[in-house]
Amino acid sequence: MTDRHAEGMRIRRQVLGDAHVDRAEAAKTELDAPFQDLITEGAWGTVWASDGISLRERSMLTLALLAATGNFDEIPMHIRATERTGASRRDVLEAFQHVAIYAGVPRANHALKLARATYAEMDAAERQDG
């Protein structure tokens, strides 16, 4: 394991939580293991590990980019991560408003729909735990 991979796993766990990473690691197969290593080292061990901007700002950028490019599948995961990165619900709304202006209202609208549903799930889980 490289230093970048180890740092990527550390950041990935910090941002996404141990439970999420443990599930992803358990689901890893021989086919996708090289891809998982690529994103662990590249996305998490390089981009997310950089101290150039905060994790809060990275969350906002990531959510805006996912929405703007129509890559909606990972939005719920990154909404959940905001609990660990410090991006508030207002921050997320602001990011998606930027998407509406610069990439299109339908994409921002769909991203907000996903955010609302994910926050509702998070709130329900918190009520059960609380």
UniProtKB/TrEMBL annotation:
Source organism: Roseivivax isoporae LMG 25204
Molecular function in Gene Ontology: peroxiredoxin activity
Record InterPro entries: 4CMD/NDH-1_regulator (IPR052512), AhpD-like (IPR029032), CMD-like (IPR003779), Decarb_PcaC (IPR012788)
Signal peptide: none
UniProt name for this protein: 4-carboxymuconolactone decarboxylase
Domain Carboxymuconolactone decarboxylase-like: 35-116
Superkingdom to which the source organism belongs: Bacteria
SUPFAM superfamilies referenced in this protein's UniProt entry, alphabetically: AhpD-like
